[in-house]
Design a protein that fits this description.
The structure is a single chain. By secondary structure, this protein is an alpha/beta fold. 44% of the residues lie in helices and 12% in strands. The longest helix is centred in the N-terminal third of the chain and has 31 residues.
């Protein structure tokens, strides 16, 4: 072959390679600045492939309660390149109906009294708040249409049952007496524990829990007026109701279920008895673990593996049969947030405990809340300036990445203690990164996009 032809071919190959390399990098840079060019791929349902996780509770929130339109929500999820939506739906002492035009009369009556509105206004409230399973199903479907492969994590409380509840699978309504029968009673196991000089009977224990949840009673505690109760995880009726909550979220499109305080009852009884191996502690631990198995079993009946997770603590400290958890979560402490310094010993202990118990399952960290002025999210949002919040997010992302833990970005959600001064958009008692009072959305986007491109 003529030498001149060879030289020409080499030049053509060189410039072709240079063009491809330049185009690839321009695409990367452009995707950071222009999300219209962003084609979402996602982890295709594989939890181990998640790079970017965002907390968005609830995806059905609308402007009425501090959220945004569905199109705006999808835009936010795309801009943050979310592989996983954490706590995308959550219930708490409020029975969730199928839809705004299918609400049992007992639920209408409860909502009207609690919200101080007329019964005929309840359907409109449900519609505006997005608090229905129909809204959840439509929202997940719309998100997955734009972001196929994204993992949606629903969330449930193991430490709370409402005074009035509805089974979303069977439609059965549980009245006040039904749910009171589900409430935890330490004397069920003949445990006579005193607190501040008082024997913790069922009434006294539930009153204490209600007070911790900021409920007040003018004429003394009356279980018929409480918002809800701390349930007994060993009670078959509560187990059935709890599993129906999980099933309905799965039927609505959830790929995973995160259970808040799954082992709280075992922990409470451990504190009362001082014995990790007390039969009440072991029974509560074992029954809680069965909930994990039952959710997995239901997912399999639907032809897919549903991921189940809960807190890393206290489960890593218990002995006995291990629950088949797919992932765990941990929160930075309020002190770590306030001082901007992580407790290396604490995180090493937790990391080692998770690895020893569960191997290399995904481990996530997020800023938790809990209806008290010193909760992590309250410290983060109320005691740190906007710049300090941004600096903490950067510091946390780097710290957890080095620990092989995925930091979940606080995009929307996280309820504040009722007495907070700084509220999202001036009125909502929940954190929102786009609210001008917090203004952390841009740094979250920057961190998320950097992580997505690694």
């Amino acid at each position: 072959m003529d030498k001149r032809i060879i030289i020409v071919l080499i030049i053509i190959i060189f410039f072709a390679a240079l063009f491809a390399y330049t185009r690839q990098n321009i695409t990367k840079i452009g995707s950071l600045n222009n999300m219209q060019n962003f084609t979402y791929i996602g982890p295709n349902g594989n939890l181990s492939s998640v790079k970017v996780a965002t907390l968005y509770e609830k995806v059905t929130d609308k402007e009425f309660i501090g959220g945004r339109s569905l199109n705006e929500t999808v835009k936010v999820l795309k801009e943050t390149r979310a592989d996983m939506i954490f706590r995308g739906f959550w219930i708490w002492n409020a029975p969730v109906p199928e839809s705004s035009d299918n609400i049992p009369p007992e639920i209408i009556d409860l909502a009207a009294k609690r919200l101080n509105i007329k019964p005929e206004q309840v359907p409109e409230f449900i519609e505006k708040s997005g608090l229905s399973y129909k809204e959840l199903e439509n929202t997940i479907s719309a998100i997955k249409k734009e972001m196929p492969g994204i993992i949606f994590v629903g969330a449930l409380p193991a430490q709370s049952v409402g005074r009035i509840e509805i089974d979303p699978i069977t439609g059965k309504v549980y009245n006040n007496e039904d749910t009171w029968d589900m409430a935890f009673d330490p004397q069920k196991w003949n445990i006579n524990y005193t607190y501040k000089g008082k024997l913790l009977t069922k009434d006294e224990f539930q009153k204490l829990e209600a007070t911790n949840n900021q409920e007040t009673f003018k004429n003394g505690y009356d279980y018929r007026q409480a918002y809800g109760y701390f349930p007994d995880i060993t009670n078959p009726d509560f187990q059935e109701l709890f599993l129906s909550w999980a099933k309905k979220q799965i039927d609505s499109g959830a790929d995973a279920i995160w259970i808040d305080l799954l082992y709280s009852q075992a922990n409470v009884l451990k504190g009362m008895t001082g014995d990790l191996n007390h039969h009440a502690v072991r029974e509560s631990y074992d029954e809680a673990s069965k909930m994990v198995d039952q959710i997995h079993k239901y997912g399999e009946s639907k032809g897919k593996h549903v991921y189940v997770g809960t807190w890393s603590e206290p489960v890593i400290d218990y002995q006995g049969v291990l629950p088949k958890l797919d992932f765990v979560t941990t929160t930075p402490s309020s002190e770590e947030i306030y001082y901007g310094k992580f407790d290396e010993a604490r995180w090493s202990r937790i990391n080692m405990g998770v690895k020893n118990k569960f191997g290399n399952i995904p481990h996530f960290a997020f800023i938790d809340w809990g209806g008290r002025p010193d909760a992590p999210i309250d410290v983060f949002s109320q005691r740190l300036s906007v710049n300090e919040q941004k600096e903490f997010l950067k510091k946390a992302d780097e710290f957890f990445s080095n620990k092989n833990i995925i930091f979940i970005y606080p995009v929307h959600g996280a309820d504040f203690w009722g007495g907070v001064k700084t509220r999202a958009f001036g009125k909502f008692t929940k954190y929102d990164s786009l609210a001008p009072e917090f203004d952390t959305y841009d740094i979250i986007k920057k961190l998320a996009n950097k992580k997505a491109l690694k």
